[in-house]
Design a protein that fits this description.
two-stranded antiparallel sheet, 4 strands, two-stranded antiparallel ribbon, Helix-turn-helix domain-containing protein, single chain, alpha+beta
């Protein structure tokens, strides 16, 4: 499988830790460390030893985090 096929899953481009951190202004250790990804339930894909992300899934995850924090503040 070549690189261009690896970077696309069902037509959507996958991005790496650095790109995701820059794009969404997230700490890179949240994305690069398995423990952090698991605790925060960050959607990701493993491609061999590599970790990749779908931008639209990260965007939805961030929106869900903001919604859950606003709901907690209202309680």
């Amino acid at each position: 499988m070549n690189t261009s096929n690896l970077n696309h899953v069902l037509g959507e481009q996958l991005i790496d830790v650095r790109q995701a951190a820059l794009m969404f202004n997230l700490p890179s250790y949240w994305l690069s460390q398995a423990k952090e990804r698991q605790e925060r339930r960050i959607p990701h894909y493993r491609v061999g030893k590599l970790v990749r992300f779908k931008p639209n899934e990260l965007e939805a995850w961030i929106a869900a985090q903001q919604t859950s924090h606003e709901g907690a503040a209202d309680a």
